[in-house]
Amino acid sequence: MRPRTDQQTETAGRSPQTISSMGMDKADEYPFDLGTYTRPVTTPSAECQAWFDRGLVWSYAFNHEEAAECFRRAIAHDGTCAMAYWGLAYCIGPNYNKPWAFFDADELARVVRQGHDAALQAQAHLGAVTPVERALVAAVLSRYPQPTPDADCEPWNVAFAHAMQAVHAQFPEDLDVITVYVDAVMNLHPWDMWQLKTGEPTPGAQTLEMKTILDGALGLSDTAAASATSVAVGAPPRGGAQHPGLLHLYIHLLEMSPHPEHGLPAADNLRTLVPDAGHLLHMPSHLDILTGAYAAAAEANTRAAAADERYLAHAGPLNFYTLYRSHDYHFLVYAALFSAQSALALDACRRLEASLPAALLRIPSPPMADRLEAFLALRPHVLVRFGRWHDILALPAMPDPPSAPGHANPDENKNETEHEEDASLLCVTNATRLYAKALAHAALGHPSRARATQRLFLAARARVPASRTLFNNTAPDLLARPAACDDDALARLAAAPALAVYAADLGIDDHGAERLPRALQHPGNVSDEARAVEGTLKALLRVADDCAACGD
Which SMART domains match (predicted)? Predict the structure, then answer.
């Protein structure tokens, strides 16, 4: 993948104005700046090449729906381009954030059928393709070996990883081959490349092997990167350190490792590489947060959210990328909390809430409420973090739902902005508000009200289905911590129970080293741990004084 020059296809990767001035149809004008990125494929059509490049970049940026649309546009311009069909098959399947198990039955059947058809079309149009294109096309069929899904599609991922291993052995310096191969292997153990408690590689995950491959790819010289892919003579090559797919995967591989800081050079290379790909603008913040660069994390997600909003204006909210946009807002809130920026955090909450209409949450397939609704619970957490107790108590109440949470059919007559009236649809948000209100009552010196509200919270939490998630976490698991926080607040009249809770949270109780994940252990960090213990002691002493004074 390299910047394109005048000696290559002239249209790919340029601004809409440049494309129009060069004679491309206005229908092919594109409002997004995806950088100067290209992989020349076998096609006589400049338009097909341009749309292929866009599809590939969006694939690496995990906007798979937009990638699929771009590959379909490439096919529309050249129905004989095998790599356009390959790209479509590649991008619509499972990925690091969405394994086969996350597809509901209807979506799974649709994706498998479309992926199988696209893979067959790619094979049917091999013609005069290059050897590496032929190998990639052969490999992708192993991802969809039949037009209907099996009860367990995970063996297809294994077959695809093995097929890509063979392609990589044949073309070891092709940056896109490396990217697709590492992606295929990481998809066998998504978010499980390292053991969280020990920091050791997960057995059988090929973690260190993939790191070695990525390290080598990121260090490939310009000359090696140029020779690995057929490029027109005179094209200035670009090495692996400027490849968005490699950089993206490298961050994911290292973020749960013992040394996430080793990925910072890759993160810095990615920060502005693809200006309108919001998820790629966001990705460096995964390492910023882990290394204490909270201002950098906030800046990265501010840029990402702006790019996401440009895409929202183009495509609307009724798509899976809304999950990624919500994640970027969420990460912006998280960074703002760590850097004590309440205004920034609340503004991100406002923008997130405005981007998640009720019509989107009511889509049954894929079940968007299960995937998105928990993001709407961020505002109470922000208000708790900054001690804005009266603002918490002013949050609207939701009536008890008549039945267990589910997915109602879209109602055209419902006011789509009135989330507040539907505690069933917004079950995580409702429970989180009640947790925050219980905490607020306790903080304001009204434990009887706090206990009553806590009972409402526990009842609301019990109505949250296990299918509700916030990325890799189930909502019931996430709501277990607020339950403990309410318990902490209500235990303030008895210092011993509170101290036990705080000691466990700090990892300084008898079981701390066993219970705390490796990422939360800081051996030798005596000064910070001492300050944490001192802060806990001061907080307990003040709580005791407050409780004695309030007498409630």
Answer: TPR (SM00028)
Q: Could you tell me which residues are beta bridge partners of residue 194?
A: 201
**Cβ–Cβ < 8 Å for 1, 37:** yes
Which residue range forms the structural domain that includes residue 535? 491-552
CA distance 542 to 552: 16
Per-residue pLDDT tens over the stretch 420-458? 458 889 999 999 999 999 999 988 989 899 999 999 999
What percent of the chain is helix, strand and coil (3-state, nearest 5)? 60, 0, 35
pLDDT over 60 (residue 413): no
Q: Is the dihedral of CA 77, 78, 84, 89 positive or negative?
A: positive
Taking alpha carbons only, the member of 242, 243, 236, 273 closest to residue 5 is 236
Evaluate whether residue 262 is within a structural domain.
no
CB atoms within 10 A of CB 197: 15
Q: Where are the alpha helices (DSSP H) in 375-422?
A: 378-385, 389-393
User: Which of 435, 451, 476 corresponds to the end of one domain?
Assistant: 476
Q: Are residues 495 and 471 in the same domain?
A: no
pLDDT digits (tens, 9 = 90+) for 285-307: 999 999 999 999 999 999 999 99
DSSP state of 373: G
R_g of the chain computed on alpha carbons: 25
On whether the CB atoms of residues 143 and 180 are closer than 8 A, the answer is no
Q: Which residue matches tokens 């690496």?
A: 60
| Greatest alpha-carbon span in the chain | 85
Rounded Cα gap, residues 501 and 494, in angstroms: 12
Domain end position, chosen among 476, 501, 516: 476
Tell me the pTM. 0.83
Q: How many structural domains are present in the chain? A: 3
What are the C-alpha distances in Å from 223 to residues 41, 226, 244? 19, 5, 18
Tokens of 361: 């949450």
> Bridge-partner residues for 469, per DSSP?
474
> Which one, of 409, 456, 406, lies nearest residue 433 by Cα?
456
Examine the domain organization and report whether 344 and 374 are in the same domain.
Answer: no
The answer to whether residues 456 and 520 belong to one domain is: no
